[in-house]
Amino acid sequence: MSPREVAASYDRIAGRWSSERFDRQNGIAQHQRALAFLSASAGLALDVGCGGSGRIIDLLKSRGLEAEGIDLSAEMLRLARMRHPEVVFYHADICEWEPAKRYVFITAWDSIWHVPLAKQESVLTKLCSMLVQHGVFIFTAGGVDAPDEREDRHMGVPMYHASIGVLRILSVVHDAGCRLRHFEYDQHPEAHVYFVVQRT
Fold first, then answer.
1. Considering the entire predicted model, what is its pTM?
2. Checking DSSP bridges between strand 103-108 and strand 43-48, what pairing results, if any?
3. Residue 13 neighbours by CB under 8 Å, 6+ apart
4. Buried b / exposed e along 74-107 (16+ C-beta atoms within 10 A)
């Protein structure tokens, strides 16, 4: 699936993240752990694949950060702008987007794994390069040992997921000037992992 096709699928199901049944605590404890590595008390933060729930934007703002968001899905962004009209949002593909700013904190919670497998290394390198010195980056990935990609309909719409594998991820972020601060299989036995890295 292309990123445009992934966006079309998310357009169809965007309302799930705004419903009362959605767990707004999803990923929050992990972000709080990542924010603890941040020495800055203010600055610019970016939510990659921000979606429409606004929960991570809320957390970043409560920490004193100026939050921005980027997403492929026009419908997700419509919902995001309704919730946070004061926030800058970008309707763009992270693979192609060229930022004009640097960030003290970047989050890509459950989003990078939709990036085509062949582009994941370059996207990770780009996101690491967008951090200021000592900036922190939290992101999730498929916790697999070797590169893998798949398409399914487990969310009710066509969807694509991929991962370059845990060891390759660690190598890429190291080469991009970041160091690992935290790593966890946080939904074991599911192969869902998250990384906290910091630019040094």
1. 0.95
2. parallel
3. 155, 156, 157
4. ebbbebbbeebeebebbeebbeeeebeebbbbbb
- In terms of DSSP bridges, do strands 159-163 and 178-185 run parallel, antiparallel, or are they unpaired? unpaired
Question: 176: closest CA among 138, 111, 122, 140?
Answer: 122
Q: Give percent of the chain above pLDDT 70.
A: 100
Residue in the structure block whose two tokens are 């398409």? 151
Structural domain including 181 reads 3-199
Quote the distance between the C-alpha of residue 133 and its chain's center: 20
CATH number at residue 73: 3.40.50.150
- Distance (Å, whole) CA 65 – CA 59: 9
Q: Is the pLDDT of residue 117 over 80?
A: yes
Q: How far is it, in rounded angstroms, from Cα 94 to Cα 126?
A: 9
Question: Span 70-91, mean pLDDT?
Answer: 97
Is the pLDDT at 78 greater than 80? The verdict is yes
**Total domains, the chain:** 1
**DSSP code per residue over 165-199:** -HHHHHHHHHHTTEEEEEEEETTTTS-EEEEEEEE
Question: What is the pLDDT of the chain when averaged over all its residues?
Answer: 95
Q: Is 45 exposed, middle or buried (0-12, 13-18, 19+ CB in 10 A)?
A: buried
What letter represents residue 149's amino acid? E
Q: What is the per-residue pLDDT across 8-30, written as a single tens digit (0 to 9) for each?
A: 999 999 988 877 787 888 899 99
